[in-house]
Amino acid sequence: MGFFLRGIRLPVKKASTFDSVETPLPQRVILPLRQYIGELSKPTVSVGDKVKVGQLIGSPDGEGALPLHATISGKVVDIKEHLDHKGSSVPSIIIEADGTDSWIEAPKAEEEDISCLDPPEILRRIQGAGVVLKGLLPIPLGSDLAPPDQPKTYLALNGREVVKRIDTLLVTALDPEPSLGVNRYLARIHNSELAPGIAALKATTGAERTLFVVDRNHRPCPQLEEMAGADEQEATGILLLDGGRFPLGLPVPLLKAALGRQVPLPYGHPRDVGVALYDMDTVISVGRSVRQQIPQVETLITVGGGALSKRGIVRIRIGTPIDTLIESLGGLTDDPAKIILGGPLMGMAHYELGVPITKDIGALFVLSRDEAGISGHYRQCINCGLCVRVCPVNLVPGMLSLYCAKDRFDVAQTQGLFTCIECGCCDYVCPSHRPLVHLFRHAKHQLMEAIS
Ligand code: SF4
Ligand code: SF4
User: Which of 93, 205, 264, 319 gives the lowest tally of CB atoms within 10 Å of its CB?
Assistant: First the structure.
């Protein structure tokens, strides 16, 4: 069976499932000084200061740090440690709204043409806007890019340093999970920042061609098709894939399915096979930050689950607490069984509703008791082999989980623990309801702790 044909097929959701839902501005935001993997920013404001939307309130202080901007106008009421969604206590700036939503300065007039900008200037603007790459390992987007005349070097598996040039910019309208819809939503509506975002990413990566990956179950907006058709050099194309197949939206299976390129595992990256892979959301954020120089103060997330009154795609200010978001969506309809940040298959369950929505979060799901399928306990592995049949990276999840459960992390590592992309397909099919991904994450964490 082909590598990318594994996984599971989930019901295709109607495009209207991913319509936008309006919410009011929050009265209070909590802005952690780190919302990515990297160093903390340093506060540039004090308690009592008045701030406007887009004002710099945290400056980068160390490698991999990003600037932080106020996301509402109002007063800084506290700067203190606050829990983030990973359960870490992070210094955070808390702002109470003044109700005016006034910006530090009007967004810059759109520049006609960004082709006059050189790659270092593009990178400076992306970094200055504080754009974070969402995903399993959220990092500042600027850290993922390098101008083509200064390509990054990578260690090959044999330990030799190599320089890999990027030939393709892959822009995906598939979401990490079929229940998530931000990218499919963005592919259905015209966005004037898409073209400048693509131009900026091509300039900074050196990619010569652009390929859009679109869910074949949801027709994209005509402008996207025109963009592909209008390219006389035929360096832009659209590829239709089945968005109901999971985990096709994740980088490793996606590159195999779209281009037939195998990202080396473990620890591989799309650029190792000459691809710059970004989703629609990221490309549009790049367009806004480069052309209009607007800092990242809001984010698009999917909200779903049977216990929520409203479901769809929400544009919210970064730092909005989860309970505020739920309230602004009309509250809960049912006794919520599980609150998940991220998708139902790959997200993390949460019990603390005061944590803020940060730049690295892509979804909030509040599942009802029926949806959560809570059994209360899990059973022994019965060696049915279902998990092996669905694993997209050819692991033996049942066996791997036994090593992890018995704290034999060293053996689990030799059996491919770090090749696991944490897609959750094995969890989904396991008739014994074994918490396989949970065990894998715990084992990885223990091993990483041991070497740090
Ligand atoms: S072992 Fe990892 S990669 Fe394989 S199905 Fe399970 S979660 Fe996905
Ligand atoms: S699906 Fe569950 S019960 Fe079946 S082999 Fe895998 S871990 Fe064991």
Answer: 264
Check if 430 has its Cβ closer than 6 Å to any atom of ligand 2. yes
CA-nearest residue, atom 6 of ligand 1: 426
- Residue nearest to ligand 2 atom 1, measured at CA: 430
Residues spanned by CATH 3.10.20.600 within the chain?
A: 15-106+295-370
Ligand 2: residue of 396, 399, 429, 432 to mutate (most ligand atoms within 8 A of CB) is: 432
Contact status, residue 363 vs residue 303, Cβ threshold 8 Å = yes
426 lines ligand 1 (CB under 6 A): yes
State residue 144's pLDDT score.
Answer: 83
Whole-number Å distance between alpha carbons of 46 and 61: 17
**Residue nearest atom 2 of ligand 2, based on CA coordinates:** 430
The DSSP secondary-structure symbol of 135 reads S
Nearest atom in ligand 1 to 422's CA? 7
Write out the E strands in 305-414: 312-317, 336-341, 348-350, 363-368
281 alpha carbon – ligand 2 mean position (Å): 36
Q: How far is CA 139 from CA 38, 60, 63, 276, 290, in A?
A: 7, 14, 12, 15, 18
pLDDT in tens, 43-74: 999 999 999 999 999 999 877 789 999 999 99
Residue 42 has pLDDT above 70, yes or no: yes
CATH architecture of 15-106+295-370: Roll (3.10)
What is the arithmetic mean of pLDDT over 40-44? 95
Alpha carbon 350 to chain centroid, angstroms: 18
Are 166 and 154 in contact, with CB atoms under 8 Å apart? no
* Residue 245 scores a pLDDT above 70: yes
CATH 3.40.50 domain locations along the chain = 116-292
Mutate to test the pocket of ligand 1, among 391, 415, 444 (most ligand atoms within 8 A of CB): 391
d(CA 311, CA 305): 7
Contacts of 449 (CB under 8 A, 6+ apart): none
Q: Using CA positions, which residue lies closest to atom 8 of ligand 1?
A: 423
- For residue range 363-406, list pLDDT tens digits in order: 999 998 888 765 567 788 999 999 999 999 999 999 999 999 99
**Per-residue pLDDT, 160:** 64
Q: Which CATH number is associated with domain 116-292?
A: 3.40.50
